[in-house]
Amino acid sequence: QVQLVESGGGSVEAGGSLTLSCAASGYGHTTYCMGWFRQRPGKGREGLTMLDNNGDTSYADSVKGRFIISRDNAKNTLLLQMNRLKPEDTGTYYCAAQCSRWRIPPQPEDFTYWGQGTQVTVAS
Questions:
Q1: Residue 30 pLDDT > 80, yes or no?
Q2: Residue 120: which residues within 8 A CB-CB, separation 6 or more?
Q3: Closest CA to 85 of 106, 113, 62
Q4: Per the count of CB atoms within 10 A, which of 9, 23, 24, 34 is most buried?
Q5: DSSP string covering 1-26
Q6: What tens digit of pLDDT does each residue of 36-52 get?
Q7: What is the mean pLDDT of the segment spanning 104-108?
């Protein structure tokens, strides 16, 4: 079983930056592929980026060049650095672990473990 806890959400002005963290615990989590998803108001959960245990990454077009995913294995933490934020980036952000497929953008049905989410609000 893997537990995921996100933090780092908040409110920011358009053009600003935020870094989200996802603390992972439980058996095997360091070998899993992991990803970040977002759910905007009134929308379904959309995949943003994912990272495998070799360090390979993929990004959805909507965040490519602005967001960076990384993993600190020593701290058991997945990070999402978000730059040049836009009002349309507003939503609840979730980290996920253990994917069954590598798809671009990542798809929520491919992931087994989920955090509870953290809210990001970008003011125009």
A1: no
A2: 9, 10, 12, 18, 20, 38, 82, 85, 89, 90, 91, 92, 93
A3: 62
A4: 34
A5: -EEEEEE--EEEETT--EEEEEEEEE
A6: 999 998 999 999 999 98
A7: 94
